Structure formats: C-alpha cells, structure tokens
Amino acid sequence: MDLDAISQHFFGTTDIDTLSPEALEAGRERVSIAFGTEREAGRRFALWAVLRATGAAPAPHVAFKDAREIRAAEAYAAAIGFAERSDD
C-alpha cells in the first residue's frame, strides 16, 4: 500500500500533521474500521502501521493472531521506538 494514497483516502490529505484534532480522530476511526474488516495480511499490517503512527494502534498481540505477524509488528514498533511489552 502506498502511504500517500492511504493518507489521502482516510485523512483527506497527505500531510497528516496539518489536521485538526477532530479531523485526525475522524481519519483514525476510518482507518480502524478498515483495519477491522481487512483480510489481506499485507494491507492489514499497513493499516495497523498507520494507526501506530497516529497513536491509535492496538498492541501487536491484540491486533494480530498469527505469531509471525505479531513478531513483525513488535519489530516494527521497536524500530520506530515505541516497543510495547507483550503482556500489556
């Protein structure tokens, strides 16, 4: 998935930093709904990463059931400096 396309689709802009708190929350809600209904693993992970970047992602062990996906999400979170403990 293309990050600019995701941002434009769900937030109405490619520059999320310019959004009002209300617009950011509305975009997060749209991404959350898409994440909850997406079945393709790669697209689902991309949506989770957007939620993570905007501060609204569930913990990896909550978001994913597959152990490989959980490890990938934990590695991603660690790489961006927001590692979470698996028992949260």
Structural features:
88 residues, mainly alpha, 0% strand, globular, disordered C terminus
Q: Brief description of this entry?
A:
By secondary structure, this protein is mainly alpha-helical. It has five helices and no strands.
Structure description:
This protein is mainly alpha-helical. It has helices at 3-11, 21-37, 41-53, 60-63, 67-79. The longest helix has 17 residues, at 21-37. Helix content is 64%, strand content 0%. The protein is globular. The chain has one domain (3-79). Helix 2 packs antiparallel against helix 3 and helix 3 (41-53) runs parallel beside helix 5 (67-79).
- Can you count the helices? 5
Q: What is the number of strand segments?
A: 0
Distance between the termini: 29 Å
The number of distinct structural domains comes to 1
Strand content: under 5%
Series of secondary-structure elements, N-terminal to C-terminal: HHHHH
Spatial extent as radius of gyration: 13 Å
Mean pLDDT: 89
